[in-house]
Write a structure and sequence with these properties.
This protein has 355 residues and is an alpha/beta fold. The longest helix has 34 residues. The model has no long low-confidence stretch (mean pLDDT 95). The structure holds phosphoenolpyruvate and manganese (II) ion. The site of manganese (II) ion has 5 residues, from loops.
């Protein structure tokens, strides 16, 4: 993937790149009021949803093209750049007609390769930054696939937005961050900027600052934060929007750590991590060998591979042990489940005479 900068002229290249504005453009007054406050605080790029993909019909589905006129006015009156979400070719043509400076593809659209392909074709030859939100489901390949479709038509000013992943478990987050997914994206495409969307991950105002801080500590390039002049009255996503004043507080509370300096100072500790990882791998391989011996025994004695009681006991004892040792029980569950899965896979091979 050939990648070039998504920075727009006059926008500070220092991290974080900030995109702020309402979930949806609702009225001209709301858009202009929010825009003037943001511009006064030095925000350079405004977001506003014009077409809103809603889970069920009957919700507010965006004001449509009329709102693009308001965004044009934002540009004229404040000098800010404007950005919006596109989900169809028609959206692309409309947005470009009104001079929108930056586009993004929403999470529901990224999950649909046909839609992404159509958008890509409509964007061929257009030189503006395009950001791709992660798909609603935790599928890194689908996310990369969408970026590749844009890259294949010749677009280079690409970026990714991490907005978290759908889950039934909504205890803390509206969408689970699953940080390892954007981290893996960054590992594969180090030049691809990643913008974190703490608003849609958290789903509530109080989580915006800690999530933004975490994104900065992971060296993500930017933040897209839903900001509304009167959040409680917002027509969509009211509970996660902040006022421009609160946005300013959040941004000034962020600690932006230096990448280079820490890399140098950390080499000794990193050596220790490398050594510990080696030990972990050796131990895991040893555990697998023992598990294969068990597999042979089960085969000879005609026993089933998974013995639920035993697995249940392993999960319980180890998770409790891990918690006592200061580790997150959920983390330990994921690790044990992964080890168990590999162990079962190897035993299945033994049962089927594959090894
Ligand atoms: C949005 O940015 O308002 C939006 C609809 O987000 P997502 O596509 O991440 O759900
Ligand atoms: Mn929203």
């Amino acid at each position: 993937m050939k990648l070039e900068s998504i920075l727009l002229p006059g926008v500070d290249p220092k991290r974080p790149l900030v995109i702020a504005g309402p979930c949806s453009a609702e009225t001209e007054e709301q858009v202009m009021n929010t825009a003037h406050q943001l511009a006064a605080d030095g925000i350079k790029i405004m977001r506003a949803g014009i077409w809103k993909p809603r889970t069920k019909p009957g919700g507010f589905e965006g004001v449509g093209s009329e709102g693009l006129g308001w965004l044009k006015k934002v540009k004229q009156e404040t000098g800010m750049y404007v950005s919006t979400e596109v989900a169809t070719q028609k959206h692309v043509y409309e947005a470009l007609k009104y001079g929108v400076d930056m586009l993004w593809i929403g999470a529901r659209t990224t999950a649909n390769p046909f839609a992404v392909q159509e958008i890509a074709e409509a964007l061929q030859g257009v030189d503006i930054p395009v950001l791709v939100k992660n798909p609603v489901n935790p599928d890194l390949e689908l996310w990369i696939g969408a970026l590749e479709r844009l890259s294949n038509v010749g677009l280079t000013r690409l970026g990714a937005i991490h907005r978290g992943f759908s889950s039934y478990d909504k205890k803390i987050y509206r969408n689970l961050p699953q940080w390892h997914i954007p981290i893996e994206l960054k590992r594969r495409y180090p030049d691809l900027p990643i913008i974190c969307d703490p608003s849609h991950i958290g789903g509530k105002r109080d989580l915006i600052l800690p999530l933004s801080q975490q994104a900065m500590d992971l060296n993500f390039e930017g933040l897209i934060i839903e900001t509304h002049c009167n959040p409680d009255e917002a027509w969509s996503d009211a509970s996660q929007q902040v006022t421009p004043t609160r946005l300013k507080e959040i941004l000034s509370a962020l600690i932006i750590r230096d990448v280079k300096q820490t890399t140098e100072d950390l080499s000794e500790l990193r050596q220790q991590i490398d050594e510990l990882d080696n030990q972990l791998l050796e131990l895991l391989a040893k555990r697998m060998r023992v598990s294969c011996e068990i597999g042979t025994f089960k085969k000879e004695h005609n026993l089933t591979i998974v013995q639920t009681n035993r697995y249940d006991e392993i999960l319980h004892t180890r998770i409790a042990q891990a918690e006592e040792m200061g580790m997150n029980p959920e983390f330990m569950r994921v690790v044990l489940e992964a080890i168990h899965e590999e162990s079962v896979r190897q035993q299945v091979d033994i049962m089927n005479n594959k090894v």
